[in-house]
Amino acid sequence: MNPIWAHILTLVLVLLVMVTIAAGLIYVERRMLAVWQDRLGPNRTGPFGLLQVLADMIKIFFKEDWIPKFADKRVFVLAPMIIMMTILMTFAVIPFTPLISVINLNIGVLFFLAMSSLGAYSVVLAGWSSNNKYSLLGAIRGSAQMLSYEVFMGISLMGVVVMAGTFNLHDIVMAQHSIWYFIPQFVGFIVFFIAGIAETHRLPFDIPEAESELVAGYHSEYSGMKFGMFFVGEYLGITLISALIVTLYFGGWRGPHFLPPVVWFLIKMFVFILIFILMRASLPRPRYDQLMSYGWKILLPLSLLNLLITGACVLYFAPGH
Amino acid sequence: MNVIFYIASIIAIMATIMVITGRNAVHSLLFLTVSLLAVGVVFFTLGAPFMAALEVIIYAGAIMVLFVFVVMMLNLGKAYEKMEESWFSYKAWLGPGILCVILLGELIYVFTVTKGSSQPLTVITPQEVGMSLFGPYILGVELAAMLLMAGIIGAYHIGRKKQKEYHRFLQKEEESV
What we know:
The complex is a heterodimer of chains A (about 325) and B (about 180). With about 325 residues, chain A is an all-alpha fold. Chain A is built from eleven helices and no strands. Chain A has helices spanning about 5-35, 50-60, 75-90, 110-130, 135-165, 170-175, 185-200, 210-215, 225-250, 260-280, 290-315. The longest helix of chain A has about 35 residues, at about 5-35. The model of chain A has no long low-confidence stretch (mean pLDDT about 85). Chain B is an all-alpha fold. Chain B has two domains: about 1-120, NADH-ubiquinone/plastoquinone oxidoreductase chain 6, subunit NuoJ (Four Helix Bundle (Hemerythrin (Met), subunit A), Up-down Bundle), CATH 1.20.120; about 125-175. Helices cover about 80% and strands about 0% of the residues of chain B. Chain B has helices at about 1-20, 25-45, 50-75, 80-85, 90-115, 125-135, 140-160, 170-175. The longest helix of chain B is centred in the middle third of the chain and has 26 residues, at about 50-75. The mean pLDDT of chain B is about 80. The chains are: A mainly alpha (about 325), B mainly alpha (about 180).
């Protein structure tokens, strides 16, 4: 097959599979929350309630897509696009298998950090353009939270980069042939995981959209498919963070040979997605100042120390020293 | 790569013009972000992927978000847009505009007279950037680090407010005890 067509096919495949997984997660989350909370969950539509996603999607497509009269129209429309675009673009650098990946970028880790920092615009602009005080409060909380947790996220990743000696995600997976990095980089893994939850504003850290205080936070004024984009964007974010944890700390597509690499990747990814959902089911929301001081006073020193010790160890055990 | 370079440059220039002529502060900041992203693409096409990533992470992703954040907090309304419009009058931009056109003409002349460097495009890897930063330019890195540290300490000092706040219920309890 022509390499260009193969490339385009990979691209479309990755996009479709990821958006489908993200939409399917809406069902998985409701169902798993129900299991963990001793309820039934959606089980009426289709076998095991599987068609519930379809019903939800049809509903959201045909809902009235209303733009408030007092909103800044252009920015209001732009905001939900940004979150979908930045997250979907990041999937381009993830190596699902040695062969299935859209681009083998030598600054893969930095590309992810760049896209996740651009994702903050979505929250800020959605809240500002809605012209609503609850949205604005949510946006202020969201942007402060995302900006601060990005710092530790970046520093915690640097431990892996130091050990592998590259920003390229393919090479990072290749470098994990003897040991998966979550063992030597356990502190970095924990910090990255927590920062990942904060970046996607999932439940323990979903203060930007705390419904008991702020209606729905930055997306209070959104309806129809624009709200749907925020909603699916959140699940895409979970999928992305899980895929990155697998790539950076759990050996990517590596695994025993009886299953193909892509299956190993998906199995590991779903384990982390389920952990994300379990955390939503079990943990309460912290107060906002607790969230910030926890980040700056515990996670930042921890990730800096981790980087320092990793660097020292790598230098000490380097061959020819 | 050449076509991408020219497209990105044109986007950067157009976006910057929109920044200057825009009336709404947040819209202008968004155009500035677009301009920075386009500059990132320019860096990438010139063989500096690390710089391109930093341009997006630091300028577009962190500093501009803070700018938008601050402007959002100020919440400037329609009255401010009117005021901005009155400042952006004919007289204000004509003089600097003419001077800039002269400079642009000189720039184009210089570009047409001098030949571009014949060196082939080399891609600078992140490792090479690190080697040169912590090799010949170590002094600059350390000076920048000191400056940033001073900035952090200064910000902390300004932000620190000594105040005693009691929770309204706890205070009553303490008083009663």
